Amino acid sequence: MPSNQIICLSHAPWQAVPTRTQQLLLRLKGAHILYFEPPGPNWRRPGRRLRPGLTLYTLPPLAEVEERYHIFFRRRYRRLARFIAQRMDRHRFREPVVWTDTPESVHLLEFLSFRALIYDCDRAWSEFPIRWESDLALSADVIFAASQGLIDHLSPCSDNIVLLPNGVNYSMFAQPNLRCPPELRDISGPVLGYVGTLWRDLDLAPALLCAQYMPRWTFVFLGRRERNPALEPLSVLPNVRLLDPCNPGEVPDFLSRFDVCMSFPRMRDPDNDVVPTRIYEYFAAGKPVVAFYRRGQVEPFPDVIYAAYTAREFARLCRQALSEAGDWFQARRRSRGEVASWSHRAEQVQQILETVGLFDMPLL
Questions:
Q1: Predicted local confidence at residue 361, as pLDDT
Q2: How far is CA 337 from the centre of its chain?
């Protein structure tokens, strides 16, 4: 029977752009992992072997049931747990460690046989009852939290919380001599870029002000778009380019052409202090970063981020970032990105799990 067995119960399907949990699990040495993604139409497919020691399964799509219908609610999760247990038996998993990144999995735990529980928390789960996450945190042997705010949120329920910020595939974003994408080759002036989803509630007011008053600067937004109210006025400006998502491997090419990288907060979650992965990608590329913050928010990297609290200040700092001289800041940013590499984060996870006896040290 293989050691270091992990059952992952994830809120996210396995995807080409890996989630935080995917990034960490892919790098655990000597681990044997069964990854269960949310219910979907592929649940009848046999397990897909993604790499040696990692197999993917899709949970069956059972009808949703409100928690107030207690008997039927528990029956649903019992059936999901039975599906998981059958796959565990097929792979000879006995008393594995359960790794989860969602409070919803708390309802599966009573029906599964396992020896320890790890909760990887990288967000505030406002869509679930707070009791779900409280019960999960109380049961967890180790909690990895992506920010100090999440630690403070979970600390009433557990003393076993470790700060583990997000990370980056450093080697991919720090490549030298990258090629400028065809979409940007005709641009002669400064390029200010943003990579990521343009959420409906993303505060793009600073970008709109800059684009209106700085016509010689080109503003590039790369990623999926929701119905953000700023998109219509942005789209009519000749110096704004709204580009669809590209292959993940092409993102570093776009960053190589950006002169300044931008970051904006979501308005629905003003107290969120989780540093998004895109910031570490900007760092790995060595690019100046101008970030817009809400009043009262703490600047996570005051030495390498230009932090603005008003739209006018954002425009002024973009101009300052464009005039940045010397290599010190670029080297400092790359150093921040290298420390945040997913390989380094996974090493931290592995060391902690070995120390507390949840993971056997791999044989050399």
A1: 66
A2: 15
Q: How far apart are alpha carbons 298 and 296 in whole angstroms?
A: 6
The residues facing 191 across adjacent strands are 218
Widest Cα–Cα separation across the chain: 66
Take residue 163 and report the two structure tokens written for it: 């700060």
- Structure confidence at residue 326 (pLDDT): 80
141 with 118: CB under 8 angstroms? yes
In whole angstroms, what is the distance from residue 237 CA to residue 233 CA? 7
Token pair 């029956």 in the structure block, residue: 75
Please tell me the distance from the alpha carbon of residue 277 to that of residue 169, in angstroms, as a whole number. 10
Q: Are the C-beta atoms of 210 and 234 separated by less than 8 Å?
A: no
**Are the CB atoms for 199 and 266 separated by under 8 Å?**
yes
Q: Which residue has the higher pLDDT, 200 or 362?
A: 200
Q: What is the pLDDT of residues 6-41, one digit of tens each?
A: 999 999 999 878 899 999 999 999 999 999 999 999
